[in-house]
Amino acid sequence: AKSNQTKTETASPKAPNGKHYLSQPLIKSIYTADPSAHVFNGKIYIYPSHDYDAGIPDNDNGDQYAMKDFHILSMDKIGGKVTDNGVALDIKNIPWAGKQLWAPDAAFKNGKYYLYFPVKDKHDVFHIGVAVSNKPTGPFKAEPKPIAGSFSIDPAVFTDTDGSTYMYFGGIWGGQLQRWKDGKYDANGSKTDLQQDEKPALTVKVAKLTNNMLEFSEKPRDGVIVDKNGKPLLGKDHDKRFFEGSWMHKYKGKYYLTYSTGDTHFLAYAIGKTPYGPFVYQGTFLEPVQGWTTHHSIIEFKGKWYLFYHDTQLSGKNHLRNVKVTELIHNPDGSIKMIDPFVD
Ligand code: FUB
């Protein structure tokens, strides 16, 4: 007789494209995105955005990403239990904040933990702030003002082997980087990019931090991404150029700048000889995930490298994301092995 039983859920459910997800959400009790992972005291800490549904319709400005606080996740090992450590910083305790608490990062120095975050000020302009704690999970206390000279979004903080710490930051479109092209904010500037296809594309900003981790020690510079002939990527190179969500890791003495290509939905990488670049474009290493945004971090843990990323497996909605992890492999020639977030 024909069975009318429905198929039971498998360990790896199918995505809308008919394939299976490569990995599963790390936590299902809250929506999380933009995972910045770090190893502190031998344990893995993830500093994500905390997505929630503010009831704001999707638009290119990203108004639907109306986040209000941060929860830090921790785990003893890859594949181990993931703990949600509760509210680490609330927007109401950031004196200068208006709205949209976007993708954070964290660092440890001088016995303290530093949480870096972008948020719009009360005039709707993104800047980057810092908050300090004695513990990796907070609670964090925000400094009274944004970091002087900071703008746009997506801070990624990297400490080099010589102890110097750098912040990479910026994002176009809703991240407003294009509105700072002349060094000051242009409220009437483009909503997307410079709209100059044949000119060098906007790129990530990089600035060394002061030893107290609270300020820029220099004016932010352009981390220029060039092709193999040394020519900057152009505005029209949408499948290669920087959009947002940068990260820096050092592998075998080289500086790997990784980032999202935004409207073409890849993670791409470029390699430099110094933390400031120039960075030579190499290719993409994560195919588009489910959902519009793609944002990541890379860490080494117990001799292996891992990619933390997000997709929209749990909700199917662009602004309600969930963080994931998978192994990242450097090939013997230094290239990064392509990762497909789906498997057959
Ligand atoms: O989470 C809000 C924004 O979406 C982030 O700042 C971007 O990188 C994108 O993931």
UniProtKB/TrEMBL annotation:
Protein name as catalogued: Family 43 glycosylhydrolase
Pfam families in the cross-refs: Glyco_hydro_43
Species name: Mucilaginibacter arboris
Keyword list, A-Z: Carbohydrate metabolism, Glycosidase, Hydrolase, Polysaccharide degradation, Signal, Xylan degradation
GO MF: hydrolase activity, hydrolyzing O-glycosyl compounds
Highest taxon of source: Bacteria
Segments for region (Disordered): 1-19
TM stretches of this protein: none
PANTHER family linked: ENDO-1,4-BETA-XYLANASE (PTHR43772), PUTATIVE (AFU_ORTHOLOGUE AFUA_2G04480)-RELATED (PTHR43772:SF2)
The family this protein is said to belong to: Belongs to the glycosyl hydrolase 43 family.
SUPFAM superfamilies per UniProt: Arabinanase/levansucrase/invertase
Biased composition annotated in UniProt, kind: Polar residues: 1-11
Coiled-coil regions listed: none
Site, Important for catalytic activity, responsible for pKa modulation of the active site Glu and correct orientation of both the proton donor and substrate: residue positions: D154
GO biological-process terms attached to the record: xylan catabolic process
InterPro entries (alphabetical): Glyco_hydro_43, Glyco_hydro_beta-prop_sf, Glycosyl_Hydrlase_43_Enz
